[in-house]
């Protein structure tokens, strides 16, 4: 009769966990210049640690090497503002969560947004279905606009799947005469895709219409509209 090996997977998992925790204490920061590749320390306990947070204002320091941590509290900004119209009915829930990881990379971001009152600063928010319909992006955009300036709703596509539940913009377009291609569907004609990973080619009397709403306070007051297009 063969020996019972039911405990071997547990030993392997335990050994792997011990090895990963041990590697967390090994400081590694090496850059392969020719390969554009770097090796850095991985902290497997990062999610359960709770370092002290710093406000965004403390992020603007002259000595960048002193910045090891940053936190941006969106909820506190909402609490300080007086809501109007439909915003009065909104209830923001959650807690202040610190930003962890290699936060030194955020220095360029905060140095850019603090100049937004005198120059144009564009912020791209990449995500999956969690930000579809401007759900999370609207909160972040309003907070940044309130703190650093700016207005408008930002980038909008021609054809969109979120027109029925997007509350920050009334978006409509002609049906049946837009040829669409994207990264997340198909692109049989190899159309050149735009910055959103989409392309829409008009056929016949194709049209698209956008209308702002009062859902957010900075949506209606804008003075510039840009249309991006190419000879697709």
Overview of the molecule:
This protein has 232 residues and is α+β, with helices and mostly antiparallel strands. The chain has a domain at 1-49. It is 19% helix and 12% strand. It has four helices and six strands, in the order αββαααββββ. It has helices spanning 8-24, 74-80, 107-113, 135-148, and strands at residues 29-32, 37-40, 169-173, 178-182, 198-202, 208-212. The strands form three sheets. It has a two-stranded antiparallel sheet. It has a two-stranded antiparallel ribbon with strand order 3-6. It has a two-stranded antiparallel sheet with strand order 4-5.
What is the secondary structure topology, with strand pairs?
Layout: H1 8-24, E1 29-32, E2 37-40, H2 74-80, H3 107-113, H4 135-148, E3 169-173, E4 178-182, E5 198-202, E6 208-212
Antiparallel strand pairs: 1-2, 3-6, 4-5
Low-confidence stretches: 52-90
User: Roughly what is the average pLDDT, rounded to an integer?
Assistant: 76
Relative strand content = 5-15%
Head-to-tail CA distance between termini:
70 Å
Number of DSSP helical runs: 4
Task: Quickly give the structural class.
Answer: alpha+beta
Largest sheet report: 2 strands, antiparallel
Calculate Rg over CA atoms. 24 Å
Q: What overall form do the CA principal axes indicate? A: extended
Could you spell the SSE succession in H and E letters?
HEEHHHEEEE
What percentage of residues falls in helices of 4 or more residues?
Answer: 10-25%
Report the count of strand segments.
Answer: 6
Order of neighbouring strands in the sheet with most strands: 1-2
